[in-house]
Structure formats: structure tokens, C-alpha cells
Amino acid sequence: MNKSISPLHHPMKGTIDIPGDKSISHRSIMFGALASGTTEITHFLKAEDCISTISCFRQMGVTIEEQEDCILVHGVGLHGLKRPLMTLFTGNSGTTTRLISGILAAQQFDCTLTGDSSIEKRPMKRIIQPLSMMGACIDSIHHNDCAPLFIHGTHLHGIDYTMPVASAQVKSAILLAGLYADEPTTITELVPSRNHTELMLKNYGCDITTQGHTITLKPGQPLNACKITVPSDISSAAYFIAAALLVPGSLLTLPNIGINPTRDGIIHVIQSMGGNIELKNKRLSAGEQIADLVVRYSTLHGTVIEGDIIPTLIDEIPLIAILSAVSKGTTIIRDAAELHYKECDRIEVMVENLKKVGIHATAESDGMIIEGSHHFEGGMINSYHDHRIAMSFAIAGLIAKAPIHIMDADCISISYPEFFTSLEQLAHK
Ligand code: S3P
After folding, report:
1. Ligand 1 atom at minimum distance from 23 CA
2. Contact present, 266 and 234 (Cβ < 8 Å)
3. 136 and 147 belong to one structural domain
């Protein structure tokens, strides 16, 4: 499905409810499955990626009930998963693929795991290597360090591992394997990545501590089911934050947004670009910080984004590139080589598409340079089936000189199925 977004000639005003956080939704199913008792999840993200996680655990014998306003996961305990009868299919979801591998490595059965054509190109050596150090037996079936993976479940040992790249998926795969190891697992991060796994496992009763950049998990504790209210996803909120900043006269309120400091880089960058964003009613919900965000139309200027902030906004960089294109001056993004390994190569694809709509941008090996002070022309962009590329250019379309057509825009269902409906509702208010 292609989608056209036409320029909006009036402000966006009102309150918008943003769906649940994708990272936390995945983890709530996984940890709930491994716990004893029933985990009740409210504000779960019913998007394709999280549905892939549900379907993998159902295939391993976990009963997961989808009720109107909550999900019930009937945990089977750490040792209760059953051998799936078929290959586990993780769809487009890197989080499902990498985290579940850590669990599968420690089971008393073998299985095969794969996903869609994007997943089959994404690097898996980053999990195969540390999990193998723990004793795991994981084969990349085509010998290319990508999925499909054959995972031969076995007995695991704890490791002391320093992360070569900042990746919450890799860190979480190791921690989940560590639940089954015969001694503690210690991970040191040079640059911290999102810490939902650590916060959530603690709530499930796991013995896990973080000191500075070092996390230690002591195995042997069962996980106990709990109630989880998933905060609204800051990565999804980001599109509407950007819409409010860019469409003249706009004022949007976004309640209950997760502002975990390992995820809130987008807020700091917007503030450093001169954006008017207020955080109201800051509070804690099951260890996660949340707040209501109020965003007003603003005149933005370019900035430099580099270093330790990168992992805290990694999924928002395509959207930051859109904001940068219409900001005063040049924006430089560095230290973000990880963008090459996302759902598509987000450096190459952003630069290619920005050029198609009249923006001067240059791809660098670890980021991009975007010349600001421009207007988006209309045009056709290729999403390459990447949800974040599609949504980023939808926001550009709101302020373009002519419609922006987005190829394969239905990929937004991977993280935000209601995106276009919400955008249209706000646009026509
Ligand atoms: C995620 C971690 C990040 C992020 C992804 C979700 C997670 O990936 O880009 O969208 O839920 O752990 P990396 O671990 O590859 O940085």
C-alpha cells in the first residue's frame, strides 16, 4: 500500500494517546512466559512486532489471552517451555529474534528461528559470540552470521562480558541466558543502552543489580508474575512531537510518555534545537519514569548529535533528520554507525529519500550531515518496508510544498498500526 500525505494548512491541536512502548511490550510477554503465575499487561502494544513475540511463545506452549483491555500471560516458569513443532518466525522484529535466542540457547530442546527478509540480513554474530562464550550452540544455517539460526539448547555458564557495541538487544539476550547459567553473569557497557530488561527483571523478583555501567545477574531465583502497565512509547510519540514542532501554530499534549533516561535523547535534542517541549507531572510507574509532554510549534536550529546520547535516541534519528532539514543551519549526526544495521540501512535510505524531496544531505560512515533551512518538495519516497522511515516522511509531508507519497506505507503496522488514523484525526480537527 502506498500512502500520500498532503501539506496541512492549519495547526494541529489537542491531546493524543500514544500506544504502548514496543520494547517493554515485548519484554512483558517474554518475562511473563518465564514467570510462575499470570502476568497482567495493560496498554500493551498490539503491533506486528509484539504479535510476533506472542506467537513464538504460544508455539512453545504458553497460553496468552488477549482481552479487550489487557493481555494475560500464563507463565510456565523458567523450565516450562515446550519444543516448538515448527520454525519460530519472528517477522520483522530484531528484539524478538535476539532476546528469544538467549532464552532458547538454554532450553532442553533444539529449534530453528528466522524472520522476514530484513531479519535475515541483520547481524546475529553480536549475539552468537557472547552466547557461545556461555556455552551456547547456535548455527547460522547459511553460514553468514544471520538468521535462520539453529539453536541447540544446552547447559550455560555465566560470563563477564564487555559490550563492544551499545545494544540493548544483545545485552538482554545475554541476561536472559544468564537466568539459566550456573554462575552469575556480569555485563559492562561502555555506553549505556536502554535498561528496560534490568528494571523489569527486578520487578519480576530476579537478583539483578546495576553499578555504574556494570550489570550483574545472579541466577537461581524464579521469576514471579506481576502486573505491568506499559508506558506510552517515546519512539512513537516522537512523530507527533515533531508534527507539533513543525506545523505552524500547533499545540499538542501527549500523556503518559515513557521518559526513561536511556530513551529520552530526543527530548534533549529538541530542546537543544530550540524546540518548545515541556514535561509535566513527572512520575514513576513500575520503575519506569513517565510524564505528560506538551509541545508547541517552534523555530528550530541545527545541532551536533554525537557520543553517549546516540543510544538514547537511536530509533529517532530518521525523524531528527526530517527536523534538521527545515531547521536553521546544518545538523551533524555522528557515532551512529548502528543505523546501518536496523530494519534497513537508515543512513543510506534517509539520505536517498531526503534528496528525493529536495533536501541536501550527505551520508557518512557513522551518520549524516543535513543542510537545514530548506522546504520539502513533494515526491515519492521508498520506505524499504521500514516503519520508522515511512512515519518520518509522513511528518515531512505535513509541511511539504506538495504531497509526499510513501511506498509500502503499511509497514507502519510493525510498531504503530493506528499511526495514519491518528494523524488524520488530528489533521482534520
Ligand atoms: C531495542 C533496542 C534497540 C532499538 C530497537 C529496540 C530493544 O536495538 O533500536 O528498536 O527493545 O531492546 P539495539 O539493541 O540493536 O540497539
Report:
1. 11
2. yes
3. yes
